[in-house]
Amino acid sequence: MDLDLDEESKRKAAPRPATPGGKKSSAIGTLGNLLGRAGIRINGDAPWDIHINDDRAASRILAQGSLGLGESYMDGWWDCAALDIFFERIFQANLTEHVTAKDVLQTLKARLLNLQSSRRSWQVGKAHYDVGNDLFSEMLDSRMTYSCGYWNVANNLEDAQAAKLDLVCRKLGLQPGMRLLDIGCGWGSLMQFAAENYGVSCVGLTISKEQAEFARQKLSGLPVEFRLADYRSFNPNGDEKFDRIASIGMFEHVGHKNYGAFFDACKRSLVDDGLFLLHTIGRKRTRNVIDPWFDRYIFPNGELPSLSEISTSVDGRFVIEDVHNFGADYDKTLLAWHARFEAAWPQFASQYGERFYRMWRYYLLCMAGCFRARQIQLWQTVLSPSGVAGGYLRHS
């Protein structure tokens, strides 16, 4: 990931120390009043309070919203001891409703343009998932499962991810000899678990070259196959059929203009009596909003669906058999990833640099706070082409 600033940007980003004892600027006063609605103080004593290191931070945040908040943190212009609680309070107080012109522009782009076109869909693979297998290996569990764990019967990351993978396999009713298609397979954690524990063969689709190459070597010897392909170009005539399909943590990159094409690809690739499990982060209302900071630095062209968008998109294509929300578990998952990232950081510091460290920390803890505030959700939805005879039985 190329996060270097050009010389002009570096000059602008150079910290300008806050003036001690000086008259508080109008921008700092305005920001302080806004944050005060969430019980957050500027230069306060609570761990969720923010500390201004550069006088320009307040103006930048007020002018640029989410993008200014994230970039000024990356540049060291402000700090917070407990970023996850800071964001939990921000989201609980709905301070994100105070949008800037740039936020509005980003929203209009999301509504009017197809930001997840076939050409653009590969950008997130290069920008995020190809950032470094070594870093992800240290941050994630042993199977490198980059999605929400299931903490109902677990008290550590390894067990929570194993429980989630087993939950998916049981919800799909996997049996030996079945073929499983994993759309957005990542490093193949589900395919590895399903092949080893349920005796199925698997095909995985990914748009990350780094993931595919790494996973092929890691899982050699298992009946799993990785294909570097976008879902729209996969199996165009429906000649290849699978007994079960799963898509875990990929639908967030599809975009509302492509939901129909996504479910069509699943429909044509599934046998008539098959099952499809969709595991996705989602928002509590339909907005088609793309956060400008996350779009620039973490998930280019990402877009969270609402449950109504999913149900509308499967109308006429699938029967919704089951919906399971365990979004609160993502808070624990993200905190576990953050703890492992912090522990491993010394070995990556010289390779990635301080700005990347602050970016990645901001990403993980912002998301943790957002899930804790229940602003975003995690759904597992089980779908069937024509309805399960006698009804579908939930496995949990």
Automatic annotation (TrEMBL):
It comes from the Bacteria. Its EC number is 2.1.1.79. Pfam families: CMAS. GO terms for molecular function: cyclopropane-fatty-acyl-phospholipid synthase activity. Signal peptide: none annotated. The keyword GTP-binding does not apply. CDD domains: AdoMet_MTases. GO terms for biological process: lipid biosynthetic process; methylation. Residues 1-27 are annotated as: Disordered. Keywords: Lipid metabolism, Methyltransferase, S-adenosyl-L-methionine, Transferase. It is an enzyme of class 2 (transferase). NCBIfam families: PRK11705.1. Belongs to the CFA/CMAS family. This is Cyclopropane-fatty-acyl-phospholipid synthase.
